């Protein structure tokens, strides 16, 4: 069974979104490199500028992701990534309500209404041997507390944001020991990959 | 004039002290390496076990530190490091009250009662071309907000502590842009050195 993983751009002071959902500083490294790198969000293509280390990291993320798990809020905020998340994997949405009406039939998305364990289980079935990637902070926190998370990938950004949304909060099982990190140095970002000790 | 710097062991979730001032996990890397490294705290010697990368980092910290700035609380908690801080530099204490009675005459310590700017100024006079190193989180926060901090050194520890004392809080000047980091990979720790952009 594939690992349960997650990846976020995080400021040195721990924020994965700035005040008012601002990502300007957190995502600056995605336009700070030398090489064009085109991703697809829905029907729209977007060309990033990445360093060699960041391309390697991005390629690996896309090649190893078998399913993406998101909370309802993120899914609606991104309008379901227009049916195609940049990581090119099917999406599992953890929710209490039926699918929004705007979701199109051909979109690779599953709505799971019976809790986090069930959502991860279904995502792992979809992912096969590939990774299940958690996209929402609240789901990461639930997975950590339920002992379901295997890997944490952080794109550490050299900025202090002071306020916003923290990735690591509401931890009930602390301390959580990690192995690693594997370190890869991009331009304007330090890629760190940790394993969760079980 | 020497740089104003600071250095902390920090968990991936941003804590520089665990609950109840617990440092077990944050300082584990100091006993996790292969090579003996003896430091002096007051009259007492303590032998750490460090990796080569951590020894290099420690040596540089000791060789470049010209003065240490601490808050009153930390100074009393450590009993003034018995008159000799491991970083082997004179101490400047930011306080509103006179020196504690237990401070001995020959200890290299100055008590500054007229605010943070004055404390940094006096520490820089003591340090000459060497660095002024801030030892207390509250003083780091005040220096960041006053634009006085030049460098941030983080020993990033692979653990999530969930609660405790955060290094980065009460930031009033966000965002603070950083350059770097210089990265050095120790055993059980990732040494990261950032410059504060001015």
From TrEMBL, chains A, B:
The lineage of its organism: Bacteria, Bacillati, Chloroflexota, Ktedonobacteria, Ktedonobacterales. This is Deaminase. It holds the Pfam family RibD_C. Residues 6-174 form the Bacterial bifunctional deaminase-reductase C-terminal domain. It comes from the Bacteria. Gene3D superfamilies: Dihydrofolate Reductase, subunit A (3.40.430.10). InterPro entries: DHFR-like_dom_sf, RibDG_C, Riboflavin_Biosynth_HTPR. PANTHER family: BIFUNCTIONAL DEAMINASE-REDUCTASE DOMAIN PROTEIN (PTHR38011:SF12), DIHYDROFOLATE REDUCTASE FAMILY PROTEIN (AFU_ORTHOLOGUE AFUA_8G06820) (PTHR38011).
């Amino acid at each position: 069974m594939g690992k349960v993983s997650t990846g976020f751009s995080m400021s040195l002071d721990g924020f994965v979104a700035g005040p008012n959902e601002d990502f300007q500083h957190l995502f600056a490294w995605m336009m700070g490199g030398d090489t064009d790198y085109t991703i697809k969000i829905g029907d729209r293509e977007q060309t990033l500028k990445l360093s060699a280390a960041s391309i390697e990291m991005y390629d690996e993320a896309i090649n190893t992701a078998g399913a993406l798990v998101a909370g309802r809020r993120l899914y609606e905020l991104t309008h379901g990534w227009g049916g195609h998340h940049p990581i090119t994997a099917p999406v599992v949405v953890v929710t209490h309500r039926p699918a929004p009406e705007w979701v199109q039939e051909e979109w690779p998305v599953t709505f799971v209404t019976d809790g986090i364990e069930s959502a991860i289980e279904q995502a792992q079935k979809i992912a096969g041997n590939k990774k299940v990637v958690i996209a929402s902070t609240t789901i990461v926190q639930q997975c950590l507390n339920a002992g379901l998370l295997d890997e944490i990938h952080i794109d550490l950004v050299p900025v202090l944001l002071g306020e916003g949304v923290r990735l690591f909060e509401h931890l009930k099982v602390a301390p959580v020991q990690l192995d690693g990190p594997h370190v890869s140095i991009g331009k304007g970002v330090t890629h760190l990959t940790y394993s969760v000790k079980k």
